[in-house]
User: What shape does this take?
Amino acid sequence: MSWEPLVLSFQIAIVATVVAGLVGVALAGLMAHARFVGRDLLDTLITAPMVLPPTVLGYYVLVALGRRSAIGQAFEALTGQPIVFSRTGAVVAATLAALPFVVKSARAAM
Assistant: This one.
């Protein structure tokens, strides 16, 4: 039995949790204490992964990070590897899925 898939899952989960925690608390602080144009739009974009089915969210992440997207091309130009189906892509996807829960909880606490 190989332990590599389990170790990979733990690595991605730990990194995504840290990133979602840092970004989520920062966004929650911004949204709780500052009034700015586009605040409702930002709140809607942050909440969207919470209400989208996982397959739809996954499809949008693939489209946004794919080789034909600006983000995907920029990442591939910098690293020489595509972001899709990589550890980095998995961390980004896990972070996007967890971010609404962190932001909503932290914003309510603030």
User: Anything to note?
Assistant: The longest helix spans residues 4-33.
